[in-house]
Design brief:
The complex is a heterodimer. By secondary structure, chain A is mainly alpha-helical. Chain A has helices at 2-6, 8-21, 27-34, 43-60, 62-67, 79-87, 91-144, 149-169, 176-195, 211-229, 235-245, 251-276, 282-290, 295-326, 332-371, 381-392. In chain A, 77% of the residues lie in helices and 0% in strands. In chain B, strands 2-3-4-6-5 form a five-stranded mixed β-barrel. By secondary structure, chain B is α/β, with parallel strands linked by helices. In chain B, a hairpin with a 3-residue loop joins strand 3 and strand 4. Classes of the chains: A mainly alpha, B alpha/beta. The interface between A and B is large, with 48 and 48 residues.
């Protein structure tokens, strides 16, 4: 078992690269698949692989959104600034910024995680009481920060209803997956097909990082810890509000910030699991259901995370360069068409006919948001609203 | 700025070195500190090889006995092993119920000619395990 354990970061590297590159394929899918193979002997090894792959995924995840404008639920907010870089031939530059953010965000998170443990021990019972109010406050802030109020309201109400029906009324297998694909991945891909994502010649330029990048990574780490405390709050929403708080953030710093939040969130989710025994992500749910985390296991996870932060940065760096060199050979139309077919088949396979139904409904809402220039953060109400309701109902009991 | 010499190549080189350091730590930690994940049947069939080592096992709870400051219970899969938990918290007491499927980790020792795990952590597992 020991030999295999040592190789868990390498297994995580392969699987995390796969989940990061294939749109719609998520850490949660792999964790769900692993749950069929858990046994007393294999549980810890599989948990190590899931921890490793989730960290690697948080790095590679930005490649589809930076080069092909196909985001996941964690990275959709990066599409616009990343596409601006892509249009001037600096797609690789945009990816490098997210790598820098992910690396230093991850390091900051590992440094901060022991203070975070003390913070949770002291204040979580107090914070717990306010969770539903804070989630509703965020929904309200999403609404008022939107320029197109009427369309924004439409998107918020209908996303919330779709989420409520998918989670509470219909029994949809893996409900999050079709909704994430419908709200975020599919509208972008279809937009690319309908309006033709043009090819822009890419180049690789040297990049010198600055202290403002480091500061953005630090802010991202704090924001990532915030996301891990509040269930339903996505990385992109945290990025959206963090950038509002620091209005001097340039598109460059914003991408560093998002890279940092994405990686930090995964790390802090495991810290929350260790301290509070509460799962805040599919990966941590798998770990929670598979082993009892004592201090030694936790430290082992932290070392795996540390190794995988480095692995994630390296593999993303090389994949990005590979794509830049081979981008001219790719037909964007064919690629996008293939992704659409794949997403439909994948949804049907994982969530059945109800999953396809919710995929269509969420797609129309996501597409409407895209066309009417409503920030797609508003679609995240599909998870924030049912979660807020879940925490809110005890107040009336 | 003083940080500006730090470029992409420096970052990747730093990652290479740090990943190597991390892997060395991983190796040392898994060799010296990590509990041995095993099944109950393996432990109960060859207890001597696990003696005085930290182990992690999972199984169903049976034969529970609570005293003032400790709890004794058995964990079973195809075999069975005695577990002792000292000063259990109220949360831990709630987990120790007959037929609950749990994972425990702790030191495997011998007391009064009987093998037992002195439990350090316990958590409830999902039933997809079995």
């Amino acid at each position: 078992m020991f030999d295999l354990l040592f190789f868990s970061p390498f297994f995580g590297l392969i699987l995390g690269t796969l989940t990061g590159l294939v749109p719609g394929f998520h850490v949660n899918n792999v964790a769900h698949f692993f749950s069929f193979f858990v046994s007393s002997d294999s549980a810890f090894f599989l948990c190590c692989v899931v921890v490793a792959l989730s960290v690697i995924h948080s790095f590679v995840d930005f490649i589809p959104s930076c080069f092909f404008s196909v985001p996941s639920s964690d990275s959709y907010i990066s599409v616009l600034p990343a596409h601006k870089f892509f249009q001037v031939g600096l797609g690789d530059f945009a990816v490098s910024l997210t790598i820098f953010g992910g690396f230093f965000g991850g390091i900051f998170s590992l440094i901060l995680c022991f203070s975070f443990i003390s913070f949770l021990n002291l204040f979580y019972s107090f914070i717990y009481f306010f969770i539903p109010f804070i989630l509703f406050l965020f929904i309200f802030l999403l609404f008022i920060s939107s320029k197109n109020k009427f369309s924004s309201l439409f998107v918020i109400i209908f996303s919330s209803l779709v989420g409520f029906f998918a989670f509470r009324i219909f029994v949809v297998p893996n409900p999050i997956m079709p909704l994430i694909i419908g709200f975020f991945a599919l509208p972008s891909v279809l937009f690319n097909i309908l309006f033709g994502l043009s090819f822009f010649p890419q180049r690789i330029i040297g990049i010198n990082f600055s202290f403002s990048d480091l500061f953005a990574a630090f802010v991202g780490s704090i924001a990532g810890s915030f996301v891990s405390i509040f269930p339903g709050l996505g990385n992109s929403i945290a990025g959206f509000f963090a950038s509002k708080c620091f209005s001097n953030f340039s598109p460059r710093s914003f991408l560093v910030l998002l890279g940092s939040i994405n990686t930090s969130n995964y790390i802090f989710c495991f810290v929350v699991l260790f301290v509070l025994d509460k799962a805040r992500s599919g990966a941590s749910l798998f770990v929670q259901n598979s082993i009892s985390i004592d201090f030694y296991f936790f430290v082992y996870f932290l070392i795996i995370i540390f190794v995988c932060i480095c692995f994630g940065a390296i593999i993303t760096f090389f994949i990005s360069k590979f794509i830049v060199y081979n981008l001219q050979k790719i037909s964007f139309f064919k690629l996008n068409l293939f992704i659409v077919i794949f997403l439909f088949c994948f949804t049907f396979f994982c969530s059945g006919i109800f999953g396809l139904f919710f995929l269509f409904v969420s797609f129309f809402i996501g597409f409407f948001a895209l066309l009417s220039n409503v920030p797609r953060s508003n679609c995240m109400c599909f998870i924030m609203f049912p979660v807020a309701l879940y925490y809110f109902i005890p107040f009336f009991m | 700025m003083g940080f500006s010499y730090f470029n992409q190549k420096c970052l990747v080189r730093l990652c290479f070195y740090l990943s190597f350091v991390g892997l060395v730590f991983l190796f040392i930690f898994s060799f010296f500190f990590l509990p041995i994940s095993s099944s109950v049947i393996s432990i109960s069939s060859s207890p001597e090889s696990f003696l005085e080592k930290r182990v992690s096992v999972s199984g169903r709870i049976s034969n529970i006995f609570f005293k003032d400051n400790f709890a004794i219970f058995y964990i079973s899969d195809l075999g069975s092993v005695k577990c002792v938990l000292f000063n259990p918290s109220s949360f831990q007491k709630n987990l120790i119920r007959a037929n609950f499927f749990v994972s425990v980790s702790g030191k495997f020792t011998k007391y009064n000619d009987e093998y037992e795990i002195v439990v350090e952590s316990i958590s409830l597992l999902s039933d997809y395990y079995v």
